[in-house]
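thread from #wetlab-drylab

HS: before we spend reagent money on co-crystallization trials with 2'-deoxycytidine-5'-monophosphate, can we at least see a predicted complex? here's what I'd submit
DV: go for it
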Amino acid sequence: MTGISIAIDGPAGTGKSTVAREVARRLRLAYFDTGATYRVATLWCMREGVDLANQDDVTAMVETMNVRLVLDPRNPRVVLEDEDVSSLIRTDSVALTVSKVATNLEARAALGRWQREIIASEVAGGSSEGRGIVSEGRDITTVIAPDADVRILMTADEEIRVARRAGEGADLATVREAVLGRDRKDATVVSFHTAADGVHTLDTSDLTIEEAVQAVLDLVTEVRGDDAGEGGASSLEEPGIE
Ligand code: DC
Protein backbone atom coordinates (compact mmCIF):
# COMPACT_ATOMS: atom_id res chain seq x y z
CA MET A 1 0.00 0.00 0.00
CA THR A 2 1.42 3.37 -0.93
CA GLY A 3 1.30 6.29 1.44
CA ILE A 4 -0.59 9.52 1.06
CA SER A 5 0.98 12.65 -0.41
CA ILE A 6 -0.28 15.97 0.94
CA ALA A 7 1.03 19.17 -0.63
CA ILE A 8 0.59 22.62 0.94
CA ASP A 9 1.72 25.88 -0.67
CA GLY A 10 1.40 29.51 0.26
CA PRO A 11 3.23 32.71 1.13
CA ALA A 12 4.84 33.54 4.49
CA GLY A 13 2.57 34.16 7.45
CA THR A 14 -0.32 31.93 6.43
CA GLY A 15 0.48 29.37 9.13
CA LYS A 16 1.52 26.88 6.46
CA SER A 17 4.56 25.43 8.25
CA THR A 18 2.91 25.11 11.64
CA VAL A 19 -0.19 23.54 10.14
CA ALA A 20 1.71 21.19 7.81
CA ARG A 21 3.90 20.00 10.65
CA GLU A 22 0.97 19.42 13.00
CA VAL A 23 -1.01 17.54 10.35
CA ALA A 24 2.02 15.32 9.73
CA ARG A 25 2.41 14.70 13.45
CA ARG A 26 -1.23 13.73 13.94
CA LEU A 27 -1.36 11.49 10.91
CA ARG A 28 2.12 10.13 11.63
CA LEU A 29 3.46 11.16 8.25
CA ALA A 30 6.85 12.52 7.27
CA TYR A 31 7.05 16.33 7.28
CA PHE A 32 8.98 18.00 4.47
CA ASP A 33 9.67 21.75 4.64
CA THR A 34 10.95 22.35 1.10
CA GLY A 35 11.95 25.91 2.00
CA ALA A 36 14.69 24.28 4.11
CA THR A 37 16.28 22.90 0.94
CA TYR A 38 16.60 26.45 -0.44
CA ARG A 39 17.88 27.71 2.88
CA VAL A 40 20.52 25.02 3.34
CA ALA A 41 21.71 25.47 -0.26
CA THR A 42 22.08 29.19 0.47
CA LEU A 43 24.02 28.57 3.67
CA TRP A 44 26.32 26.11 1.88
CA CYS A 45 27.06 28.59 -0.93
CA MET A 46 27.67 31.40 1.56
CA ARG A 47 30.08 29.23 3.55
CA GLU A 48 31.95 28.11 0.48
CA GLY A 49 32.24 31.67 -0.77
CA VAL A 50 30.32 31.02 -3.98
CA ASP A 51 29.13 34.08 -5.87
CA LEU A 52 25.35 33.78 -5.56
CA ALA A 53 24.89 35.73 -8.78
CA ASN A 54 26.75 33.01 -10.69
CA GLN A 55 23.91 30.64 -11.55
CA ASP A 56 26.09 27.79 -12.80
CA ASP A 57 28.35 27.82 -9.76
CA VAL A 58 25.38 27.86 -7.40
CA THR A 59 23.76 24.98 -9.28
CA ALA A 60 26.97 22.94 -9.14
CA MET A 61 27.08 23.49 -5.37
CA VAL A 62 23.45 22.43 -5.01
CA GLU A 63 24.09 19.25 -6.98
CA THR A 64 27.03 18.19 -4.86
CA MET A 65 26.12 19.38 -1.36
CA ASN A 66 26.04 16.77 1.36
CA VAL A 67 22.73 17.26 3.17
CA ARG A 68 20.57 14.91 5.15
CA LEU A 69 17.01 15.84 6.12
CA VAL A 70 15.26 14.35 9.13
CA LEU A 71 11.55 14.43 8.30
CA ASP A 72 10.21 13.73 11.78
CA PRO A 73 7.44 16.33 12.39
CA ARG A 74 8.22 16.27 16.11
CA ASN A 75 11.79 17.37 15.46
CA PRO A 76 12.62 18.12 11.83
CA ARG A 77 16.36 18.61 11.27
CA VAL A 78 18.69 19.70 8.51
CA VAL A 79 22.18 18.18 8.61
CA LEU A 80 24.90 19.71 6.41
CA GLU A 81 28.24 17.92 6.24
CA ASP A 82 27.39 16.14 9.52
CA GLU A 83 26.53 19.42 11.26
CA ASP A 84 23.02 20.17 12.46
CA VAL A 85 22.24 23.52 10.81
CA SER A 86 18.52 23.57 11.57
CA SER A 87 18.81 26.86 13.49
CA LEU A 88 21.49 28.41 11.31
CA ILE A 89 19.31 28.24 8.20
CA ARG A 90 16.72 30.44 9.97
CA THR A 91 19.13 33.33 10.64
CA ASP A 92 18.58 36.73 9.02
CA SER A 93 21.69 36.39 6.87
CA VAL A 94 20.25 33.28 5.20
CA ALA A 95 16.69 34.67 5.09
CA LEU A 96 17.90 37.82 3.36
CA THR A 97 19.93 35.89 0.79
CA VAL A 98 17.78 32.86 0.02
CA SER A 99 15.84 34.56 -2.79
CA LYS A 100 19.04 34.51 -4.85
CA VAL A 101 18.92 30.72 -4.86
CA ALA A 102 15.12 30.54 -5.09
CA THR A 103 15.12 32.70 -8.24
CA ASN A 104 17.92 30.70 -9.89
CA LEU A 105 16.00 28.45 -12.30
CA GLU A 106 18.81 25.91 -12.73
CA ALA A 107 19.23 25.59 -8.96
CA ARG A 108 15.43 25.25 -8.63
CA ALA A 109 15.48 22.37 -11.10
CA ALA A 110 18.24 20.61 -9.15
CA LEU A 111 16.49 21.15 -5.81
CA GLY A 112 13.22 20.09 -7.42
CA ARG A 113 14.71 16.74 -8.48
CA TRP A 114 15.87 16.14 -4.94
CA GLN A 115 12.46 17.13 -3.52
CA ARG A 116 10.64 14.77 -5.88
CA GLU A 117 12.93 11.90 -4.87
CA ILE A 118 12.24 12.54 -1.18
CA ILE A 119 8.48 12.65 -1.74
CA ALA A 120 8.48 9.50 -3.90
CA SER A 121 10.57 7.64 -1.38
CA GLU A 122 8.25 8.55 1.51
CA VAL A 123 5.13 7.69 -0.46
CA ALA A 124 6.67 4.32 -1.33
CA GLY A 125 7.71 3.59 2.23
CA GLY A 126 10.65 5.56 3.54
CA SER A 127 10.94 6.65 7.14
CA SER A 128 7.21 6.95 7.74
CA GLU A 129 6.34 3.27 7.36
CA GLY A 130 4.58 3.79 4.06
CA ARG A 131 2.11 6.24 5.49
CA GLY A 132 3.25 9.15 3.36
CA ILE A 133 4.34 12.74 3.58
CA VAL A 134 3.16 16.31 4.06
CA SER A 135 5.27 18.65 1.90
CA GLU A 136 5.05 22.41 2.09
CA GLY A 137 6.49 25.23 0.01
CA ARG A 138 5.61 27.52 -2.87
CA ASP A 139 5.41 25.22 -5.89
CA ILE A 140 4.62 21.81 -4.43
CA THR A 141 0.97 21.71 -5.54
CA THR A 142 1.87 22.87 -9.04
CA VAL A 143 5.40 21.85 -10.05
CA ILE A 144 6.89 19.35 -7.62
CA ALA A 145 3.91 17.17 -6.70
CA PRO A 146 0.95 18.10 -8.94
CA ASP A 147 -0.25 14.49 -8.53
CA ALA A 148 -0.43 14.71 -4.71
CA ASP A 149 -3.58 13.19 -3.18
CA VAL A 150 -4.46 16.41 -1.38
CA ARG A 151 -3.31 19.81 -2.65
CA ILE A 152 -3.92 22.96 -0.65
CA LEU A 153 -3.05 26.62 -1.14
CA MET A 154 -3.04 28.46 2.17
CA THR A 155 -3.73 32.17 1.96
CA ALA A 156 -4.37 35.02 4.41
CA ASP A 157 -4.86 38.78 4.20
CA GLU A 158 -1.59 40.63 3.73
CA GLU A 159 -1.91 42.69 6.91
CA ILE A 160 -2.70 39.58 8.93
CA ARG A 161 0.33 37.77 7.54
CA VAL A 162 2.54 40.75 8.37
CA ALA A 163 1.10 40.99 11.89
CA ARG A 164 1.69 37.27 12.48
CA ARG A 165 5.33 37.64 11.48
CA ALA A 166 5.91 40.75 13.55
CA GLY A 167 7.71 39.74 16.72
CA GLU A 168 7.22 41.60 19.97
CA GLY A 169 8.63 45.08 19.66
CA ALA A 170 9.56 44.55 16.03
CA ASP A 171 9.05 47.48 13.76
CA LEU A 172 5.97 46.71 11.70
CA ALA A 173 7.24 48.55 8.63
CA THR A 174 10.42 46.47 8.57
CA VAL A 175 8.51 43.22 8.96
CA ARG A 176 6.07 44.32 6.28
CA GLU A 177 8.91 44.93 3.86
CA ALA A 178 10.58 41.63 4.78
CA VAL A 179 7.40 39.57 4.27
CA LEU A 180 5.96 41.33 1.25
CA GLY A 181 9.34 42.03 -0.32
CA ARG A 182 10.24 38.35 -0.21
CA ASP A 183 6.81 37.43 -1.60
CA ARG A 184 7.46 39.74 -4.52
CA LYS A 185 10.86 38.20 -5.26
CA ASP A 186 9.56 34.64 -4.89
CA ALA A 187 6.55 35.41 -7.05
CA THR A 188 8.79 36.21 -9.99
CA VAL A 189 9.52 32.49 -10.44
CA VAL A 190 6.59 30.66 -8.84
CA SER A 191 2.92 31.40 -8.60
CA PHE A 192 1.52 30.84 -5.12
CA HIS A 193 -1.19 33.42 -4.64
CA THR A 194 -3.95 31.78 -6.63
CA ALA A 195 -4.83 28.11 -6.61
CA ALA A 196 -4.24 25.99 -9.69
CA ASP A 197 -7.01 23.68 -10.94
CA GLY A 198 -7.82 21.00 -8.39
CA VAL A 199 -6.03 22.83 -5.58
CA HIS A 200 -8.13 23.70 -2.53
CA THR A 201 -7.77 27.24 -1.19
CA LEU A 202 -7.68 27.55 2.59
CA ASP A 203 -7.90 31.16 3.78
CA THR A 204 -6.53 31.22 7.33
CA SER A 205 -7.17 34.94 8.00
CA ASP A 206 -9.88 34.18 10.55
CA LEU A 207 -8.78 30.71 11.59
CA THR A 208 -6.83 29.56 14.62
CA ILE A 209 -4.03 27.06 14.01
CA GLU A 210 -6.27 24.30 15.35
CA GLU A 211 -9.08 25.27 12.97
CA ALA A 212 -6.68 25.28 10.03
CA VAL A 213 -5.30 21.88 11.06
CA GLN A 214 -8.85 20.52 11.24
CA ALA A 215 -9.68 21.96 7.83
CA VAL A 216 -6.72 20.11 6.31
CA LEU A 217 -7.61 16.89 8.15
CA ASP A 218 -11.18 17.20 6.83
CA LEU A 219 -9.86 17.43 3.28
CA VAL A 220 -7.68 14.38 3.85
CA THR A 221 -10.68 12.47 5.18
CA GLU A 222 -12.71 13.52 2.15
CA VAL A 223 -10.05 12.28 -0.23
CA ARG A 224 -9.22 9.09 1.60
CA GLY A 225 -12.82 8.35 2.47
CA ASP A 226 -11.86 7.29 5.98
CA ASP A 227 -11.61 8.80 9.43
CA ALA A 228 -8.21 10.44 9.08
CA GLY A 229 -9.32 13.51 11.01
CA GLU A 230 -10.73 11.59 13.97
CA GLY A 231 -8.03 8.94 14.06
CA GLY A 232 -5.36 11.54 13.68
CA ALA A 233 -6.60 13.56 16.61
CA SER A 234 -6.77 10.50 18.86
CA SER A 235 -3.26 9.38 17.97
CA LEU A 236 -1.77 12.60 19.37
CA GLU A 237 0.36 10.90 22.00
CA GLU A 238 1.48 7.97 19.90
CA PRO A 239 5.06 7.75 18.75
CA GLY A 240 5.67 9.05 15.27
CA ILE A 241 8.42 8.34 12.82
CA GLU A 242 12.11 8.30 13.68
O1 DC B 1 9.30 28.98 3.35
P1 DC B 1 10.67 29.56 3.57
O2 DC B 1 10.68 30.97 4.08
O3 DC B 1 11.54 28.68 4.41
O4 DC B 1 11.31 29.57 2.11
C1 DC B 1 12.63 29.98 1.89
C2 DC B 1 12.77 30.54 0.49
O5 DC B 1 12.67 29.52 -0.49
C3 DC B 1 11.74 31.60 0.10
O6 DC B 1 12.42 32.63 -0.59
C4 DC B 1 10.80 30.89 -0.83
C5 DC B 1 11.64 29.81 -1.43
N1 DC B 1 10.91 28.58 -1.71
C6 DC B 1 10.58 28.33 -3.02
O7 DC B 1 10.88 29.13 -3.91
N2 DC B 1 9.93 27.16 -3.34
C7 DC B 1 9.62 26.28 -2.37
N3 DC B 1 8.98 25.16 -2.70
C8 DC B 1 9.93 26.56 -1.03
C9 DC B 1 10.57 27.72 -0.73
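DV: Strands lie at 4-9, 30-33, 67-70, 77-80, 83-84, 132-137, 150-155, 200-203.
HS: ok that's useful, forwarding to the group
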